[in-house]
Amino acid sequence: MRSYCLIAPAKINLYLQILGNRPDGFHELVMVLQSIDLADVVTLRSRSTDDIRVACDDPNVPADPTNLAYRAADLMVRQFPDYHARFGGIDIDLQKRIPVGAGLAGGSTDAAAVLVGINLMWHLGLTQGELQDFAAMLGSDIPFCISGGTALATCRGEKLDPLPDLTDLHVVLAKYRDLPISTPWAYKTYRQNFGDTYPTTPAAWDACKQKAGGMLSAIAHHDTQQIVSHLHNDLERVVLPEYPKVQQLRDEFQTLEILGTMMSGSGSTVFALVESLAQAEQVKAQMRRALPDPDLDFWVTKFCQSGVRLASR
Ligand code: ATP
């Protein structure tokens, strides 16, 4: 039986601004999301039985119905019962390369890969937009993971406007191994600490959105200096004081010759942007020397222009 092997890239947030409370309980956001080459590998196969099974090489990831990849398959099974009856259940094999609880959308991109893979495996013929509508039912970052590249994400993060592809910037990621940060915790704490300062009307939100204009204009002009000077993440205001090790990564990167540094999403990954692979390797080596902790992991990667895609055979 044919297997479908998909590359599921991670993302970093070049910009994350929290505007205020939405009636559905989520936050209204303005984000600029960027795909990177660091990716999980997701392999799908049909099963002779009608169940869904997840296997994962990372023991920290639940291989059960709470796994986002399982939930994506379950959604497709419920949406397309005739195809499920015809093709049978689904085997999902996850090779995790993206660290967990890292603010890199690791679970979201696996779910995106499952949606894309089932569309191919069952010959559903869904468009990217239709797949993204299903993705939005599962999680705010999942629609972006399907299309990838560089995008403006608004509303809960699920409304996407593609932005011009950025030049090939290189990225050094740093993360303490046993330091996952819960995304719901970060947003809840932000609301507790700053909720009384949120603007309360859509008109006031629109005024706040102007702040993102500098980043969008910098991207439109491919102006790297301006892009790095507009890196922004509101969640740093709650995560850095609570997690000194994340603050330390941020501070240490700042001492080096890099273009810019920022925490990604809700952390705990901190990234640094540099212009070349050689500079990225040098920054990684300098960080290792400055912080010789065996529990501190680094990845050297770069911007990529695609979301989930089939692995070349
Ligand atoms: P985001 O950047 O979208 O907020 P994250 O990168 O911070 O997400 P994930 O790596 O997606 O966080 O993991 C968050 C939680 O989701 C973890 O507690 C993990 O156990 C659970 N999880 C469920 N499915 C997966 C999956 N396929 N891969 C990784 N984690 C998963």
From TrEMBL:
Residues 67-149 form the GHMP kinase N-terminal domain. The keyword Transferase applies. It catalyses: 4-CDP-2-C-methyl-D-erythritol + ATP = 4-CDP-2-C-methyl-D-erythritol 2-phosphate + ADP + H(+). It is an enzyme of class 2 (transferase). Keywords: ATP-binding, Isoprene biosynthesis, Kinase, Nucleotide-binding, Transferase. Pfam families: GHMP_kinases_C (PF08544), GHMP_kinases_N (PF00288). Pathway: Isoprenoid biosynthesis; isopentenyl diphosphate biosynthesis via DXP pathway; isopentenyl diphosphate from 1-deoxy-D-xylulose 5-phosphate: step 3/6. One of its GO terms (molecular function) is ATP binding. InterPro entries: GHMP_kinase_C_dom, GHMP_kinase_C_sf, GHMP_kinase_N_dom, IspE, Ribosomal_Su5_D2-typ_SF, Ribsml_uS5_D2-typ_fold_subgr. Its EC number is 2.7.1.148. One of its GO terms (biological process) is terpenoid biosynthetic process. The active site is at residues 11, 141. ATP binds at residues 99-109. Residues 215-292 form the GHMP kinase C-terminal domain. Belongs to the GHMP kinase family. IspE subfamily. Catalyzes the phosphorylation of the position 2 hydroxy group of 4-diphosphocytidyl-2C-methyl-D-erythritol. This is 4-diphosphocytidyl-2-C-methyl-D-erythritol kinase. It comes from Myxacorys almedinensis A. The lineage of its organism: Bacteria, Bacillati, Cyanobacteriota, Cyanophyceae, Leptolyngbyales.
